User: Fold Family 1 glycosylhydrolase from Kitasatospora putterlickiae.
Amino acid sequence: MTSSPITSLPEGFLWGASTSAHQTEGGNTNSDWWPMERAAGEGGHIKEPSGDACDSYHRWREDMDLLAELGFTDYRFSIEWARIEPEPGEISRAALAHYRRMVEGAHERGLRPMVTLHHFTSPRWFAEHGGWAAPDAGELFARYVEATAPVYADGVDHVCTINEPNMIALMAPLLDLMLGRTDPSEMSFPTAGLPMPGEQATEALVRAHRLAVEAVKSRAPHVRTGWSVANQVSHALPGVEGAEEARAAYLRPREDVFLEAARGDDWLGVQSYTRTLIGADGPLPVPEDVERTLTGWEFYPGALGDALRHTAATAPGVPLIVTENGIATADDTRRVAYTAGALEGMAAVMADGVDVRGYFHWSALDNYEWGSYAPTFGLIAVDRETFVRTPKPSAAWLGAAGRTRVLPGAGA
Assistant:
């Protein structure tokens, strides 16, 4: 029996928005994505390079000011490995000081910082060394994590080791292709759904996560560690023979392996946007008759509730934090409608006893979405020429819950 959804946020509930370094900072020239953006050529996924992004490396104070003024109590941002360790073993004290200032700046504004240590991008030297396929990848990542202790050891309660490791694992072959390490004729991609993650990369990422947790705990035992997983929210077509078996086969390597690896962690991040329909032969294209977002995904607010339930069942006992949830749209009223539906699903899950500790919207800013600036996920618009920030109505609507502790509804 489903309980009545909650309407108010529990004491201590995290209420924020998320960003990532590469997508907002600009000028991330030492990362593996910087050359890849320029080598992809026309006709591929990469439509334009990141360039200056939102210039948040210099304007992070403006970003935090706005979030605090809007009512948010928390801010999830990432620190860039390529800035902290631009060459193997060479640690930039200036970069450490920069990110430490961000942690302190968050507190000065009444924001609790959640720090992500790896959000898709790695140093160029790490990619050239073999990336996550290198035998010492886990140790190299742990060395970086230990070096960043001055950033997170004081004033940070939550550290996310790796953002969406399942997406990194399936992007590993694409990265090899774009860096010229793979013959294009040897690559194939599905017409629907996600490619199969690399088994070697999957194992390396799980190992790297565990080594990173050990590294964080050795320097800052009080910090609660976890990682975030991209939830697929796979739905088997009802009444189709073999669809449920196909769903399980599709989901396990692309999601469940990574959820199971989080058992025993302090928390687990849920990142949900849409759903994937599964037939007897696997994933199906998005139906033609449904509303779509700017990324081409189905407008499906119920994904968040489904993702939370599946994650709770797969990693029982681990507290959950929604580290990303949002929609790419140019119509802010649809952002409000989508988010209201997603929060309704989250509230119902919490009423049923699932331990959800926080919600972070993706994203705080309209930013670089891994190949293009066209998909606008942000609560705050960013002028591409002047970098002027302009909060959208959805930002005030959602941020208000941070002050009132009352979950917003679509009509609020």
Notes: The mean pLDDT is 94. The radius of gyration is 20 Å. Residues 14-404 form a domain with the TIM Barrel fold (CATH 3.20.20.80). The chain has 14 helices and 13 strands.
